[in-house]
Amino acid sequence: xxxxxxxxxxxxxxxxxxxxxxxxxxxxxxxxxxxxxxxxxxxxxxxxxxxxxxxxxxxxxxxxxxxxxxxxxxxxxxxxxxxxxxxxxxxxxxxxxxxxxxxxxxxxxxxxxxxxxxxxxxxxxxxxxxxxxxxxxxxxxxxxxxxxxxxxxxxxxxxxxxxxxxxxxxxxxxxxxxxxxxxxxxxxxxxxxxxxxxxxxxxxxxxxxxxxxxxxxxxxxxxxxxxxxxxxxxxxxxxxxxxxxxxxxxxxxxxxxxxxxxxxxxxxxxxxxxxxxxxxxxxxxxxxxxxxxxxxxxxxxxxxxxxxxxxxxxxxxxxxxxxxxxxxxxxxxxxxxxxxxxxxxxxxxxxxxxxxxxxxxxxxxxxxxxxxxxxxxxxxxxxxxxxxxxxxxxxxxxxxxxxxxxxxxxxxxxxxxxxxxxxxxxxxxxxxxxxxxxxxxxxxxxxxxxxxxxxxxxxxxxxxxxxxxxxxxxxxxxxxxxxxxxxxxxxxxxxxxxxxxxxxxxxxxxxxxxxxxxxxxxxxxxxxxxxxxxxxxxxxxxxxxxxxxxxxxxxxxxxxxxxxxxxxxxxxxxxxxxxxxxxxxxxxxxxxxxxxxxxxxxxxxxxxxxxxxxxxxxxxxxxxxxxxxxxxxxxxxxxxxxxxxxxxxxxxxxxxxxxxx
Length: 661
Ligand code: WT7
Hints:
The chain is α/β, with parallel strands linked by helices and 661 residues long.
C-alpha cells in the first residue's frame, strides 16, 4: 500500500456512488445454466467439496484423491492426485463425443477475411504443432513463450504446449522487445512462437523486427517459430534458429500426438503481470484447478453452452483471453470468436458487424470499450442486428453506472443481463459478480462473491468494516483457480498476497488482491480501484514503478513520479512528474525522448497522457513523495490541505501546468 492507512480510507470513501437495480428477464432465467439461488447456501455448506462441481466439467485421466489439500498453505493444492491433460479437455473429448464438426474457433482478420476451425480441424493442427515442437526439442516442463498477435496460431500454440506438458508464457504482442526479453529470461525460456506481423487500422505492422530486437537480449540460445501472417504485404527473412510455422506444421500434418497426462498441480502456464516493483511477476497457474475454475465460471457466469457462439473481445495476451477465449469456452465445447483488430476499423460499427455476422449469443468486453462506443454514438449499433445477444459482460476495471446503462440499453436492448466481473490475473477466473440467472444487477457494483467464496471488506487492522464504508478487499477462502506461486519467487508470493492480515498461528490465510472496495447490506460489492502503485489504463494493469524506471533511464531526468489520473475513456491515464537535471532543457525534445523510452521499455499502452516538468516533487516532512496529491492534481480533483508538506509552494506551479495542457 502506497499511503498511510487512514489517508487511504478517506480517499476510498470519496469514490462511492449511488446505485439502482435491474432484474434479469424471465426468459433469460428460464434458460440459464444456473438459476437456483440455493447454490450460494449449498456451496457454503458443502465447502470445499462444492468445487467437485467444477472438476466435473473436466475429463480426468485418473481421478483425484482430495478436493483440497491445505498442508502447504497458502500454496493450496486442488484435486491432488488427479491426472489430466488440458488440450485433451479442450479438443479430443469433444471429437470423441461426436462434436468434431462443431465450430471451435471463428476467426476474423482486421482486413475482413475469416477462418473457421472445427474441433476436429483444431485438434489436427494442434497435434501437428505439438509434433513440431517436440522435434525442435521442447520437453515436458520447458517454458515456451508466445509473442503473437490475435491469430488462430496463438491458441493452437497454447494447446500444443498443453498437449506435451510444456507450460506456456504468452507475452502480449503490444509489449516492447525489452518486455519480451525480460519475461523470457525470467522464465529461462528457450523457445518462442511469434509472427511476422499483423494488421492494425489497415496497416501491416512489422512484429518480427521487434521480436528479433528482444531475442538479442535473451541470455540463452533460442529456437523461434514464425507464423507468416502478412504474406506479400511485408517480406521477412528468417535468421538463425528461426523456422517458418507453415513449413514445419506441413511436415507433421496428420501425425498424432498423445496428450501427456499431467498432474493436477503441474503448471499449465505462466502469465507475467505488473506489480508494485519494476519487475513483472510470473503468476503460476496449474492444470486442474485453473481449468476447472475457468470452465465452471464460463458455465455459471457467462452462461455458455456448447451450442453458443461467444465472443470475448480481449487479447489472448492477457488473462481474460486465456480463461475466456481459450480455456473456458473450449473446455465447454462452445464456439469462440477471435478478432484481430480494433473496434473502429474500417468503421466504428466493426464489433456490431461481428456480432451480426456470427450471431453472437454472449459478448464480453471491457468498460473502456463501452465508454468509447458511448462516445461514438448509438448510430453504430443501430445499423446492425444485435438480436442474437443473450448476455453481456464486462471485465478489467469498474464500469460507471452511466456506461453500464448505455451498454444495457443500446447493445443489450434492455433484455440481456450484464455481468460485471471482478477478478485478476492471479485469481484465474471470475470472483465477484452476479450469477446472471439468479441475481439482480446494480450498475456500478460488481455483485456478491461467487458461490464458495468468502469475500470481506476490512480496515487496515483486518477488521471487517461496516457496510457502505470503504475498505480493503480480501478473499478469505482458497478457490481452485488461484495462483499457486510467483514463478521462482515463493517469497514475493507470500509477501505480496498473504502477509497483510494473515495470522500464521491460526493457520488462516487471507488473500489480499490490493483493491479497495465497499459492500452494501445486500452483499453487493463495489470495487473502488487499486490501493497499491499499480494503475489501470484502459483495463490494462501497469506498474507505476515500471514507467518510472523507464523515465529516469532517459539522460537528463533526475527524478520522476508516475501516477494514474482519471480519464474519460481509459479510466485511468499515466501522468509523469519529472525533475530535470541542471543543464538539460525541459521541453518537447525531452518529452519525446521520455515517450520513446517508455514505448521501448514497456509498450505503447504505457504512453503518458501528460509529462509535467517540475523543479521539485511535493514531499512529506519525512521526505516521502506525496503520490496521492499528484494523483488528485492529475485528476483535477480537490487536493485539500497541503500544509503538512515540506514544500507546499511547488503544488500551485504543478497544478497550473497540468490544467494548461
Ligand atoms: C485488476 C486486475 C481480470 C482480468 C483483466 C484484468 C481491476 C478487474 C474489475 C471489475 C473493478 C476490476 C482490479 C483488479 N479489475 N475487473 N469488474 N471492477 N475493477 O486483470 O490485469 O490482473 O488486473 O483489475 O483492480 O485488481 P489484471
